[in-house]
Write the structure tokens for this entry.
Amino acid sequence: MGSRRDRHGRGMRGPLAWPPLPAMISRGARFDEMVLDAAETVERRLGQPLGIELAVEDVPPSDPAPWEHGVPLGRLFPAERSLPARLVVYRRPITQRALDDADLAAVIYEVVAEQVARMLGRDPEDLA
């Protein structure tokens, strides 16, 4: 088999996709990474694994919990039978409150730390 040329016969074909670059990562994927980073930081501060599932949704459901006032930024669903506890972080309400990427990371950390502290019956300031 001969050398592989582009369809016009001018030269070697390039790769089908570029290597991933930071500018190529979507905002949603960047947000997901920030949530994982916040959860890892909380785990390090606790000194133990969280043992919860993390999820990111764009917006909260239209039926708020009785204790929620305003738009929730995150919600913790307790463990049930064989399902582990689940922490859901809502992307749109959080991104609307943040001024820049550093502020976004801080807000995400506050949401994750607050929900985990509530799950453990601790003060959120212990994880700050």
